[in-house]
Amino acid sequence: MSDYPAPPFDTKIAIVVRDDLATWQRLNVTAFLASGIAAAHPQLVGLPYLDADDTSYLPLLGMPVLVFEADAPTLRAVRERAVRRSLPTALYTSDMFRTGHDEANRSVVRAVRGDDLDVVGIAAFGPKSAVDKSVKGAGLHP
């Protein structure tokens, strides 16, 4: 247990991944989505870490990231609610598993209307209550 009190957070980062993905896919999607939130909101990233030997490590997000899982219909609902609430979101679709680079990823997303995207993962950042309402129906990832 830490000697430091946990800071209060009035915002939240939530990631929801589809429950039928292989383990490697869940982990891959979660990493990509967390990077999207960090890239768009650099103020959420803390300072570099140092160990007792003065080895430096990269900074991390300075707040917890909650990871949930849901079925495909729930993920579609999460996307719709997050977009409706204008929450900053990161998205991963099934088509992105078949591409080899970022430009191709953007192209496969661009080709599909939002309501028709085959979402396999979504991350949202914003006020706790808005994020909680957006991820309603998703369960914490075991």
Explain the overall architecture:
The structure is a single chain. Helix content is 33%, strand content 24%. The chain has helices at residues 23-40, 72-84, 102-110, 128-134; strands spanning 11-18, 49-50, 56-57, 65-70, 89-93, 119-127, 139-140. The protein is built from 4 helices and 7 strands, in the order βαβββαβαβαβ. It is α+β, with helices and mostly antiparallel strands. β2 (49-50) and β3 form a beta hairpin. A 5-stranded mixed sheet has the order 5-6-1-4-7. A two-stranded antiparallel ribbon has the order 2-3. The chain is globular. The mean pLDDT is 93.
Features:
five-stranded mixed beta sheet; two-stranded antiparallel sheet; globular; 142 residues
Write the layout of secondary structure elements.
Elements: E1 11-18, H1 23-40, E2 49-50, E3 56-57, E4 65-70, H2 72-84, E5 89-93, H3 102-110, E6 119-127, H4 128-134, E7 139-140
Parallel strand pairs: 1-4
Antiparallel strand pairs: 1-6, 2-3, 4-7, 5-6
Helix pairs in contact: 2-4
